[in-house]
Structures are given as structure tokens and as C-alpha cells.
């Protein structure tokens, strides 16, 4: 996908902690349509194309169920190649009687559901960027009713056989404690605000509608979830070059953000303790 490749900085792997690995694996294979890339004793890497890990599932000892009113994952978003593919997976979800949300965001059409641990998932298709409306540096986005019948009609002749190989991690949306400090942090990472929204910010590189969503809908000053709670462990940002990565590292140092290196991977945390791995591919 255009905005999930060079020369942009984009989200790729989302790492989840789960209560029951086999239960989660069944959901992600049979409901969402992932394939297993690699399976270990307590961890599974999931892929759409057979090469790139988009989601990891890890079962740890003594995990407790998801807490409400904390910072952390709101949803991760899988971007499908076409409206036809969105129609095919919507038909699949309807046949399984999955509880779903949906929205037309002007720039995209989206479906929403939760995994067995309550982690939010968005599955969407982008409208062509030539159809997006920009006013100065902000792109028009909204939350409108989706044309579900139109989406279904588009995918009527397509058989659902799992996620298309061209599926990518389109963006991630996080609960945070404060928008001002969070915006400063993500600007240091190289992102710009493309849409302000009530209680939220949408940020991107290269004029995408958003690679990262940030909201305070769990409450201003919401605490971070404890380590032994299911949910997101970390997510990965992929930089287009070593030069851009090292510029981001210097900016993080300039705002005194936490930063460590482990096995060649730089790891930081935003002000709400969401962990981020920074890499170049």
C-alpha cells in the first residue's frame, strides 16, 4: 500500500498479550483470516502475505483480564486492498453473526470488532487519496453511517478465503492520558497532525489520513494498565532510512523521552507508557 511503504514512516507489527493463546489463535485464523508465520511455545506470529508479521499473540503466566479506563490500545487497523475485499469480509462476518460496528470516515470505510480479550480491531479500505478533501494541512474526516449494502454488493462475487496477501497494518489508535504532551512526543518521532477531533488527534507522515490515532476518551490523566493485564505489549514503527530513524532518536533525546537499545532495536515509550519499537527495514 502506498502509505505503508517507503518513503513514509508507518506502523507494522502489533504485539498483544492474551489470556488463552489457542482461543486467540482460533479467532485470528478463522474469524479474521490470518495465517501463522511462526509458532513457539507461548507465542504466535501472524501474517497475511506469508512473509511479514502483522500481529503477535503471546500468552504469559498470571495475566489478568483487560481493564477499563486506562491508556493503551484502542484498536489496530488492518487495511485491505479494495472495497471488494471489504465486502467479502463483511459477508463472512455476517454469516458468522459477529457483533460489528461500522463507519464511513470520508477517507475510508471501516468495520470494527473485538478479539476474545477485548482488543479492538478495525478492518478498512481507503478511498483513493484523490478523493480526500484537504483544508490547509488538515484532511476532512467524519464518522458517518456506512453504505453496508453497497459494500456487500461490491464483494458479492468474491469468495472469502482469509485476508488478502496485500493486507497491511494501516494504522494504530491509542488511548492516551494527555493530548498536548502526546502530540509533542509523536512530533519528535516525525509525525504531523492531519486531523484534530473532539478529544483526539490523528497524526501521519506524508499526508496519509492517519498512521496514528490518539484519544483521551478513557479520561484525561488515565493511568497506564499494569504489565500483567492483557492488551498491547508494543507496536513497531518502520522508518524509511537510517537517517530518518536517527533524526527521530535525536529528537527523542531532545525532549528527554525514554530510549533504550535491545538487539539493534530502539525502544521508547510515549507519555502514556505505550511501548514503541523503532526500526528500519
TrEMBL record:
Superkingdom assignment: Bacteria
InterPro entries for this protein: Glyas_Bleomycin-R_OHBP_Dase, Glyas_Fos-R_dOase_dom, VOC_core
Gene3D superfamilies (UniProt xref): 2,3-Dihydroxybiphenyl 1,2-Dioxygenase, domain 1
Domain VOC positions: 10-126
SUPFAM superfamilies in UniProt: Glyoxalase/Bleomycin resistance protein/Dihydroxybiphenyl dioxygenase (SSF54593)
Pfam families the UniProt entry points to: Glyoxalase
Name the UniProt record assigns to this protein: VOC family protein
Organism ancestry: Bacteria, Bacillati, Bacillota, Bacilli, Bacillales
